[in-house]
Amino acid sequence: MSSKSSKTAVQFSDLGIASVLVDVLKRAGIKEPFPIQAATIPDAVAGHDVLARAQTGSGKTLAFGLAMLTKLGGRRAEPRKPFGLILVPTRELAMQVSDALQPLSDACGVRGRLIAGGMPYIKQIQALDRGVHYLVATPGRLVDLVNRGSVDLSKVTFTVLDEADQMADMGFMPIVREILDLTCRGSQRLLFSATLDGDVDALIKRYMKDPVRHSLSPVKASIDTMDHHVLLVHPADKNEVVSQIGARNGRTIFFVRTQAGVDRLADYMTSQGVAVGALHGGKSQAVRTRTLADFRAGITPALVATDVAARGIHVDGISLVVHVDAPNDPKDYLHRAGRTARAGESGTVVTLGSPRQQRHISALTSKAGVKPAVARVRPGDAQLISITGAQEPSGTAWFPPKEKPAKPAFRQGQGRGGPRGQRGPRQHATDRPSGGRSGGQARGNTNGHRKAAKSGTARSSKQGSR
Hints:
This protein is an alpha/beta fold. It has helices at residues 19-27, 35-45, 60-72, 91-107, 121-130, 139-147, 164-169, 173-182, 198-207, 238-246, 259-271, 285-297, 307-310, 330-337, 358-367, 382-388; strands at residues 50-53, 84-87, 112-115, 134-137, 158-162, 188-193, 212-215, 226-232, 251-255, 276-279, 302-305, 318-323, 347-353, 373-376. The protein has two domains: 12-215, Rossmann fold (3-Layer(aba) Sandwich), CATH 3.40.50; 226-388, 3-Layer(aba) Sandwich (Rossmann fold).
């Protein structure tokens, strides 16, 4: 397996992408690629399989998107037979990637289509009938459409597997293998993942041919851009402490273990005057979409969510992550923590727990590779304020506005991989693994993808959306 080191101090015009794409990026004020882009784009444009270990927020969407659009430009789309496929684990990620690539696709005359659960089949089928160059898809809905005869993957020559480790965690690997088996023999494949072990490694060995490897992210949470804290709180004070944190200035995401817990905490916080949204798989797609739109737009600068709902949330400018309920394992800790300190920004990660939970939390953070500062706090404590920016909420119940928030402008940093000035991603729910199918498919019902889970977000940091 060949290997190359990441390139630095280059321009997009040096990477071999189509000149029209370079022009779009220049107009958006984007001239220098992120390391993941500088490292992988030349190899992808040259036709190599690419294997990249890179964390969320590193600019992956532009990395594979620019390469794919360069290779697909000038081809004529055929009904139901796309040439490119970007496979992602969640509906919201699919929406974010689709939104991020749309302005670039338009510029080079390449048509893409979002294929994900929780949305009407008919529009997706109609788009496929007209012909598209590439799909941004979640595994379950894509397999559903394959089985309906609405899409034929035999001409897919460029495949991207994004967040491959998350797809493995969610039980999608049997479906992913089925999809890859349907693509063109010998087609080019790019795989992006935070970790490359277990099921991901098996996928690499089976489906990638002498991939060029790039490793641009640490396996463990960054201690350079994140401050980690454990705040020991008496259980009777916990809700009040959380509400004071929620009233801070800045975008904050709170992680809670259960759907019922999300609703209870969000109800309490809004009753205290905190502008907060609640996100979990039990809510309708419309509600999830609106909740993430409000969070992205700053109407609700605080968001309470379950792990699954927040897996694909990639919003720049989240300066604080709060584990209201301690995560179950180190990987969950790192996934949650990764919502902040994206694209070179700094952020704070706080785990709340009772004194009795201190030993468990200490073991968890140690396995995650971080050494948090530990403090005992009560509502209004100076240390609580210093660490989180907590302040007293108004005490007057807050109600969400009825009007629909305006869609963010085409700004750099919006959408997981979007260029500066790009449209921000809409929002979504996770596509759950389907099951009840032959061949050892993943669990659940394929039609259950209509109930997938969670919405997506936008980016606000400078080049973070790329």
